[in-house]
User: What shape does this take?
Amino acid sequence: MKAHEIDYEIKGNDIQLVEIELDPNETVIAEAGAMLYMHEGIQFETKMGDGSEPEQGFFGKLISAGSRVIMGESLFLTHFTNKGFGKSKVAFSAPYPGTIIPIDLNSVGGRLIVQKDGFLCAAMGTKIAMFFNKKIGSGLFGGEGFILQKISGDGLAFVHAGGTLIEKKLNNETIRVDSGCVVAFEETISFDIERAGNLKSMVFGGEGVFLSTLKGSGKIWIQSMPIRKMITALSPSGGNAKKESSSVLGGLFES
Assistant: This one.
């Protein structure tokens, strides 16, 4: 099924939303609970599945929905359709402060690998499935990157990132990123989780125990403030206390 082209506007700075304009009978799919507001004529229906395979039976939809539960997402997706006679709008907000980016799936070969909570909404016809990372390291170390989402189609998909978003183009290169800061990457990129240096660096460095390693040629997207870091920074004993503790323990480790 060919994905519909949709008109949109991203609003806001630090806490963004995307407003999508739908033609009559045009549909957009979104994560459950992402809708912020909708104009007259928009109707929504919660479904078990993304609607990319309309002939799929109940058992197939159940398997697809089950994979979303494994990814930590809602069992259902919400389908918003313009049932009116003229254009109408529906808006979706991100679950926490950050940046919303539109990605034309055609420009990335029709497939994009996204962190499990990165998908926000997409044109009807977009397929969302579990992407199992076969790299052994990704599965054994912390679970980061072990289960990801694969978004497939030929239309627009909207992805959410925490904090500032950085887009990079790798040309047969390798980059190491703080674990949890990888938002999305093209399928041509190899992804794994590796240990963050020696024992002292892992325990006292404050950079985490593992790093995400991306290799190859293609685009990658990185977020500056994943939800894990945000929760730590906002907690009463977060941020500074953690740094001070690492500094003191690091000094003892040297002595």
